[in-house]
Design brief:
9-stranded mixed β-sheet, alpha/beta
Length: 310
C-alpha cells in the first residue's frame, strides 16, 4: 500500500470567535495532519471509528472532500463522536475542554473489522500516530495497535515508516504518568521517526533541553527525531547529524490550535517527497506559521496553497 495512514480521533470542534460565539468545525490532532498531508499531495488515509449520526457523516464527507481516504472508518450504531471546545487568550494561546469518554474512536481496535485496519497499517508506506492516539485505547486495543506497528517495521520488504508525535496531554492519562511513560516507551521502540514537542517532553520525562530529548529517544533506535520548540524553532536529528532550524519569521498568533499538527504534516510531506531534513523543517515552520494566523485547527485550503506557492 502506498498510502500514509494516520490513526486517531476526529471530533466535533466548537471554537469561540472574537464575538463570543462558537463556530462549528471538525478536528483532532492526527486528522488535522492527515488533511494537511493530503493538501500537500500525499496519498493519505485516516483510521478511526465513528457513530451513525449526522456529525459522523459530515466528518466522513469532510475527509473525502479533502482527499483523505476514509474507508478505514467503521461506524458504530448509536454512538456519536467526541466534542471539544477551544478558547484562546489575548496572546492566541488556546485551551480546550473535552467531552469524549464514550467516543467510538476508543474502540477502533476492538470493533468488528479491526483486523483489516491492522493489516492496512502493516502494508502502509507510513503510519502516523500520536500520544493522544495511544491514550484512547484499552490495554487490549493498545496491544493490538502496538503489535501492528511492530509487524509494520519487521515484515515488509521496505519497512513501513512509523512516525510518532508525542503530543502528551496529562488529562488523557488521568494523571497516571507511570502508565503514560510505559506506553510511550513501547511506542518509541516500534517507531522510526519522532516529532515531539519539547514542552510535552518536559512534562512527561523532565528533559532539560531539546538535545536531551533527542539523546533519550535515539536510545530506542529512532534514527530521525525533530523536536519542535515553538518560536525557538526545531532541533533536527537525522542522517547522523543534529542541527537547529530556526523559524523563518516571528508571528503574533491568532490561535495556536493545530500548530504542531501542521508542522508535522509539512515536515513529513517534504521528507516523503525527497527534501532534506533541514528543508523539511523549514516547510513545517512555514505551514505552522500560516495555521496559527487562523482560528481553528484546519485553515482554509487557499491559505495553505499560498504557503506552498512560496
Amino acid at each position: 500500500m502506498s498510502k500514509v495512514v494516520c490513526v486517531g480521533e476526529v471530533m466535533v470542534e466548537l471554537a469561540r470567535g472574537s464575538d463570543g460565539r462558537f463556530g462549528l468545525a471538525y478536528g483532532g490532532d492526527t486528522f488535522n495532519t492527515a488533511v494537511y498531508l493530503a493538501r500537500a499531495g500525499v496519498d493519505v488515509a485516516y483510521a478511526t471509528a465513528l457513530g451513525d449520526d449526522t456529525f459522523s457523516s459530515e466528518i466522513l464527507a469532510l475527509g473525502a472532500a479533502e482527499g483523505v481516504d476514509m474507508s478505514l472508518v467503521p461506524r458504530l450504531r448509536g454512538r456519536v463522536p467526541g466534542l471539544y471546545l477551544i478558547t484562546t487568550d489575548e496572546a492566541g494561546e488556546r485551551s480546550f475542554n473535552y467531552w469524549r469518554d464514550t467516543a467510538p474512536a476508543r474502540t477502533l481496535f476492538e470493533a468488528e473489522g479491526w483486523q483489516q485496519v491492522a493489516a492496512t497499517l502493516v502494508g502502509a508506506r507510513a503510519v502516523y500516530f500520536s500520544g493522544i492516539t495511544l491514550s484512547l485505547y484499552s490495554n487490549q486495543g493498545l496491544g493490538r495497535f502496538l503489535a501492528a506497528l511492530e509487524m509494520a517495521g519487521s515484515t515488509t520488504q521496505s519497512q513501513t515508516l512509523r512516525v510518532f508525535d508525542g503530543n502528551f496531554r496529562p488529562r488523557n492519562w488521568a494523571g497516571d504518568l507511570n502508565r503514560a511513560r510505559t506506553v510511550f516507551a513501547e511506542a518509541l521502540k516500534r517507531s522510526s521517526m519522532a516529532l515531539p514537542t519539547f514542552e510535552d517532553e518536559v512534562i512527561l520525562w523532565g528533559d532539560a533541553s531539546p538535545a536531551a530529548t533527542i539523546a533519550r529517544m535515539t536510545t530506542y533506535g529512532l534514527t530521525e527525531v525533530v523536536v519542535k520548540n515553538g518560536a525557538a524553532g526545531a532541533l533536527v536529528h537525522a542522517d547522523g547529524r543534529t542541527v537547529e532550524v530556526p523559524v523563518e519569521r516571528a508571528v503574533a498568533p491568532l490561535d495556536t490550535t493545530g500548530a504542531g499538527d501542521s508542522f508535522n504534516a509539512g515536515y513529513l510531506a517534504a521528507r516523503l517527497q525527497g527534501a532534506s531534513p533541514e528543508d523539511a523543517a523549514r516547510a513545517g515552520h512555514r505551514l505552522a506559521a500560516e495555521v496559527i494566523m487562523h482560528r481553528g485547527a484546519i485553515i482554509p485550503r487557499a491559505a495553505q496553497e499560498g504557503v506552498r506557492a512560496h
